[in-house]
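Loading example: each entry is read as two labelled lines plus one structure line.
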Amino acid sequence: MIKYCLIGALLAGGLQTGFAQGPERINLSDPNLVVVDDSVIPIPLEIFASLDKLGAQNWASQVGKRDIVLDTNRSRTAMLFGLIVSDGFIAVQAEDKEGVKRMGREVLRLASTLGIGSSVEGHANSIITHAGHGEWDVVRKELDRTRQTAVNQMKEMRDEDLVDLVSLGGWLGGTQALAAVLRENYTTEGSDLLNQIDLVKQLKTDFNSLPKRARRGELFSQVEKTLTHLESLMISDSSGAISEGKVIEISLSTRNLVNAIYES
Amino acid sequence: MRADLNPILLVTRTLPLVLTLSVLDPVSAQDAEKSGSPVVVEEIDPIKLAAQRAALSDLTGETPFILRESGWSGTIKPGEARLVQMQFFRRNEYQFWLAMGNRKAELNLNVYDGEGQKVDSDVIVYDETNVASTRVRPELTGVYYVRISLKTTIDEPQKWSMIYAYR
């Protein structure tokens, strides 16, 4: 059946009738498909934006206030870097000026430890300055830039193992906050945001592909176990929802791992 | 008209001639303005710039899209396709902008769900055929695939760049 729709004028260019070309269906198991390697992990704000459409959430309760004790383990520092950037996003969502400024300072300290301080210094200073003025749009953009600049710099320095760990830390921090907020105020509608099984699988694959020297020790065993556990939990039912029990379990599991990264 | 295509909204737009720095880089623009110091410009990829130029009008207004810093790039031959895996969240809206180097290049940009079924999207076409955009509102949270393809209207492989935003 030939189908089309005509919709009223929107923009200067005006309204036209048209069709999106491309096959109606693709076979995802086709070995000839070329999937682009570069994966983009959603930043916490993408997820929070969706949840906030269901009503105001208590993001302020999720703003971290921990002291970070650094050691010589660069893999852990990379995960902490990702966690701190995600904490920054949470603080932005909560519009917590002091929280964001503290994150900005920690970002710079962690970046310096990873040898990329000079690359992110401008972003970190900008975060601190603009947070002080409550310019959240700018802070949000600078946080995303901080993360991207760090990742680019790590790739340039052939520190690609650290890139995956930064992504993992960032995802973990955002997921922990999301699960905690959903746990406080469970709704079936909001719970679907934890339907991230493919993302967890990808993170786990990336993690397991790291050289053993980059994931040696008890902390990294816990990372692997937690990702496996989350893989079994982040499956929605037929309506797209994740049960309250699973949300609680995801919250506890992610919180335990975040605690372990900070405290190890 | 072809029978195998979904109904879509297709809008044509004229690309702005000048990239407004303050939209894509509010920080540098504001800080430079305050300090009077020159803006430090990183090496610019002209193809990515074309995608950013197309995005400009959607990054302002009452409910602007929020542009991510991440993006993708590569090279593609005519008649070939690439897939980019994405995690979408229900209730959000996503927009992608794809650009290629040759002004005669013609592109397709489509979104598929985790089962490989094409999802309805709004297609925005520009007066330059080497830039395309699509906007999608996922019905479910989960994995999706953005499919990029280059038509056989030209012979040479093309460098491409894609960026995205959400709201």
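Helices of chain B lie at 21-24, 26-35, 46-55.
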